[in-house]
Amino acid sequence: MRHVDPDTLALLAMGEAAAQPIEREHLEQCEQCGQEIATLARAAEVGRTTLSAGELLSPDARVWSRISDELNLTSAQAPAPQLAPVATLRPRRRWATAVVGAAAAVALVVGGVAGWQYLQPAYSVLATATLDAFPEWPGATGNAVLEKRADGARVIQVSFDAPGLQDGYREVWLITSDATQLVSLGVVRGTSGTFTVPDGVDISQYDLVDISDEPYDGDPTHSGNSIVRGQLVGTA
């Protein structure tokens, strides 16, 4: 027999007992119809999961442009970035097909919005610094990058290389331009690390990034033995 009617497949995908005995017999043997039901069922399930997702965001026009390009749609075929009224539908079977189709459309919208949000930068670079060696540490080099994350947190990423490191540990500091005040950001594990800048620290004042060599002496203050240091310079 011919394949099962698409409207019946849509109803089956939604969990309704819509198949006649001869259709059920066909479904037990037809891989194509079985795959079609599975595809429609997944689309319906995705549509259901969006019911508790809260208010949908309005995606940027770039989302629709990229979706159209990916699916090779013409401008007439491309979906509009808003909800459209549903036309009057025919009997129940056409309604079932429309519901599953709507579920797939919702999945496309949600996926597009998620993709658009994913494409947004997770951080912005505020300043960078080249860390120069102190005389006691010839050959040492380093750099630092100050970033602002999407949640508003400021972090500094540092990396350095210093020949001749011995026992002890290395600590990262922010120091004022006149070198009279300093704030510890933490200990470097290895030769690189990411450190959160405490709230209230004014980077325009604490603009020197310093990495020091510290002994295990129980003293939390700066040892006075800086390996590298450099001034943060804005990228704007």
- Protein structure class: alpha+beta
Order of helices and strands: HHHHHEEEEEEEEE
From the alpha carbons, calculate the radius of gyration and give it in angstroms.
30 Å
Number of helices: 5
Helix content: 25-40%
**Which stretches are poorly predicted, pLDDT < 50 over at least 5 residues?**
82-93, 116-120
What's the main sheet like?
Answer: 9 strands, antiparallel
Strand content: 25-35%
Annotation, overall tally of beta strands? 9
- Number of domains in the coordinates? 2
Mean of residue pLDDT? Answer: 78
Tell the overall outline.
Answer: elongated
CA-CA gap between termini:
70 Å
Structural notes for this entry:
32% of the residues lie in helices and 26% in strands. It is α+β, with helices and mostly antiparallel strands and 236 residues long. The chain folds into two domains: 6-119, no CATH class; 123-234, Immunoglobulin-like, CATH 2.60.40. Strands 1, 2, 3, 4, 5, 6, 7, 8 and 9 form a nine-stranded antiparallel beta sheet that branches. A hairpin with a 4-residue loop joins strand 2 and strand 3 (154-161). Helix 1 (6-13) crosses helix 3 and helix 1 (6-13) packs across helix 5. The longest helix has 28 residues, at 92-119. The protein starts with 5 loop residues before the first helix and ends with a strand. Residues 82-93 and 116-120 have low confidence and may be disordered.
